[in-house]
Design brief:
Structural class: mainly alpha
Number of domains: 1
Distance between the termini: 8 Å
CATH architecture: Orthogonal Bundle
CATH topology: 434 Repressor (Amino-terminal Domain)
Strand content: under 5%
Order of helices and strands: HHHHH
Helix content: 55-70%
Length: 75
């Protein structure tokens, strides 16, 4: 399992569920929209600190960013 893609998919899903734009997450976290875009595409390898800051900006537990979905667990 490619963790970069997993984190990117989870981040994008959670962001959309919260009805937030990348720009709003940038304002809340201080992490650039360009970085967030690359993260969602699975092209970034975030640090533990970045995962925590993104989770805070989303209002979720940081574990939600690395938790595999049922689909991820299957294949």
């Amino acid at each position: 399992m490619d963790m970069r893609k997993l984190v990117g998919r989870n981040f994008a899903r959670l962001r959309r569920e919260k009805d937030l734009t990348q720009e709003q997450i940038e304002e809340r976290s201080g992490i650039s929209q360009q970085y967030l875009s690359g993260l969602e595409r699975g092209q970034r390898n975030p640090t533990v600190i970045t995962l925590y800051e993104l989770a805070q900006a989303l209002g979720v537990d940081h574990i939600e960013l690395v938790r595999p979905s049922d689909e991820d667990a299957k294949g």
